[in-house]
Amino acid sequence: MKIADQVVRTGPTLSFGPDDLKGLSDTTHNDALVIRALIANYDVAHIFVDSGSSVNVLFQETINQMDLGEYKVEPVVTSLFGFTGHAIRPTGLINLPLTLGKDHTSKTRIVSFIIVDAPSAYNVILGRPAMTIFMAVASALYQKFKFPVGNEIGEVQGDQKISQKCYIGEVRIEQKAVKINHDDQPGPIGREQINLLEDDTPPTTEEECEEILICPPTGSVKIARTLEAPLKEQLIQCLMENKDAFAWSVSDLLGVRREVMEHKLNFIRDYHPIIQKKRHFGPEKDAVI
Question: What is the reported pTM?
Answer without folding.
Answer: 0.58
